[in-house]
Amino acid sequence: MLCLFSIIINQNIIFIQRMPDKLFLQENPTLRNFQEYVHKLEIDRGFIDQDALQKCLLLGEEIGELFKAVRKMESISIDKKNSKITNVEEELADILIYICSIANRYDIDLESAFRAKEEVNKKRVWEK
Predict the structure, then answer these.
(1) Which of 19, 64, 75, 96 pairs with 40 at a CA distance of 20 to 30 A?
(2) Rounded to an integer, what distance in angstroms lies between the CA atom of residue 35 and that of residue 93?
């Protein structure tokens, strides 16, 4: 992370003030905050030029990694030699990043989309 400092000169006194890191996600973020953060991290890390198709394919890979992590957690046999296996928490975070990224490509506000879809789902009849 890049950390910046600003120097303020006031009446021959120099104040050094720490500037916030380039990438900062506020406490208790909204979905909009996550989307804005992902947009900034993609610029910072050089991923902003990847199109929606690339992001969807990468999301698919992350979902596969989530499945492997779940298999590991559930003690289902896995190929430990040939697989990069992390944990469920990390894979879910990666998936959230890609979902935000895809939504950003299409200018979709995820919170609004979630609320609208949930209104549709509430009217569905769920049978057991």
Answers:
(1) 64
(2) 13
Within a 10 A sphere around the Cβ of 35, how many other Cβ atoms?
A: 20
Report the distance separating Cα 23 and Cα 1, nearest Å: 8
Domains, the chain, in order of start with CATH, read: 51-109 (1.10.287.1080)
Report pLDDT digits (tens) over 48-76. Answer: 999 999 999 999 999 999 999 999 899 89
Given a contact cutoff of 8 angstroms between Cβ atoms, the answer to whether 23 and 40 are in contact is yes
Is pTM beyond 0.70? Reply is yes
Residue 33, CB-side half-sphere exposure with 13 Å CA sphere:
8
Burial track 92-125 (b if 16+ CB lie within 10 A, e otherwise):
eebeebbbbbbbbbeeeebeeeeeeeeeeeeeee
